[in-house]
Specification:
Blueprint lengths: L1 H6 L2 E3 L10 H10 L9 H6 L6 H11 L6 H17 L2 E4 L2 E2 L2 H4 L5 H18 L3 E2 L1 E6 L4 H11 L6 E7 L11 H9 L3 E6 L6 H12 L3 E4 L7 H10 L2 E4 L1 H8 L4 H9 L3 E4 L4 H4 L3 H12 L3 H14 L4 H17 L2
Parallel strand pairs: 1-2, 2-4, 3-5, 5-6, 6-7, 7-8, 8-9, 9-10
Length: about 325
């Protein structure tokens, strides 16, 4: 199963570029940008990854990205992710980035987007990894700030396929950003939102995503299984769920393998993703392999999870079908 997973073509739809910032890279960037760190070695950074819920994770996460200052920093960040993705046979991805976390530190939006874009172009040319970028708004910042950043990204409209919503979910419902997402849809962006595991008012948040925001897919969304009406509407609308097994383990002490299998059995388009792999110490293959081991998944189930990702990817129909055909050929030849 491990070899089968490693060779399988994959699409990743839920990965935060800032969450791919490895400890060694943090130190290299800190040195280059003359930033003093409170840790003396990369190992001390990893040892500090003592998070057990979303707020404790975000505290460490935002502190670390302070080293990202120049265009080359964002270029290197994205390049290193694409290299790891290629090594895991991820052939297509839709990475997130969080511009507010950088502009609030005085980094220009152009600096961020240009560095990432150059890395995307190089990854497509040199690694064969195709990608489309998703800009996320931080839900614990104001809706006014989100709208400002939506306006900020419009000159780069062709470089960004969709917008999302992430960060601390507590008391920050989707409805807070209704006007921002309505404007984004008018501008032609695809829409997604995080509905993190076991958050306050989570069922209401998922319902708002469906009926108020009218998202094109949901990030995480595991708690939808607790409400039959949510399950029915998600299935009827063909919405995908970008589930992150190893990330979930930090919240619910499980890879949620039982929940993912239930999603498959109910016809929900569940997918496997790495979320913040530098922090959770697990990229795509690690997530698939650990999930398969915990839940004793069959090859057919693993292939279905990969197929789901290509099916819900924001791709033209011909590109989507080409990737699905590639997956089918692999599945048959490895059978």
């Amino acid at each position: 199963m491990k070899e089968f997973i490693e060779g399988m073509p994959k699409a990743e739809l839920h990965v935060h570029l800032e969450g791919t910032l490895e400890p060694e890279h943090i130190f290299a960037l800190a040195q280059r940008n003359s930033i003093e760190l409170e840790y003396s070695t990369p190992e001390e950074v990893v040892a500090a990854y003592d998070f057990h819920d979303l707020p404790s994770f975000l505290k460490i996460y935002y502190a670390a990205m302070n080293v990202l200052r120049e265009e080359v920093d964002f270029y290197e960040l994205a390049c290193q992710y694409f290299e790891k993705a290629a090594a895991d046979n991820v052939v297509y991805c839709e990475p997130f980035f969080d511009p507010q976390a950088h502009t609030s530190r005085g980094v220009d939006f152009k600096t961020i987007i240009t560095g990432i874009r150059r890395a995307q172009e190089d990854a497509a040319k040199n690694l064969g990894v195709e990608s489309n970028l998703i800009m996320c708004f931080l839900r614990d910042m104001s809706a006014e700030s989100a709208m400002e950043h939506l306006e900020m990204c419009l000159p780069y409209r062709e470089w960004i396929i969709g917008v999302g919503l992430d960060s601390d979910e507590k008391d920050n419902p989707p409805s807070k950003f209704e006007a921002v997402f309505a404007r984004a849809r008018e501008e032609g962006f695809r829409l997604t939102m995080h509905c993190d595991v076991n958050q306050k008012d989570i069922h209401e948040h998922i319902r708002e995503c469906l009926d108020l925001i009218k998202v094109d897919r949901i990030d995480h969304g595991v708690n939808s299984l607790e409400d039959e009406s949510l399950i029915r509407d998600i299935v009827d609308r063909g919405l995908g769920l970008t589930v992150c097994p190893v990330s979930n383990r930090f919240v619910v002490q499980s890879l949620t393998s039982e929940e993912i299998r239930t999603m498959l059995n109910k016809g929900m388009k569940a997918t496997v993703n790495s979320d913040d792999p530098a922090y959770f110490r697990a990229y795509m293959n690690d997530n698939f392999i650990e999930l398969a081991e915990e839940g004793n998944f069959s090859r057919d189930e693993i292939v279905q999870l990969s197929r789901n990702a290509f099916e819900i990817a924001w791709l033209p129909a011909d590109r989507r079908q080409a990737y699905i055909n590639e997956l089918e050929r692999y599945s048959q030849s490895a059978g």
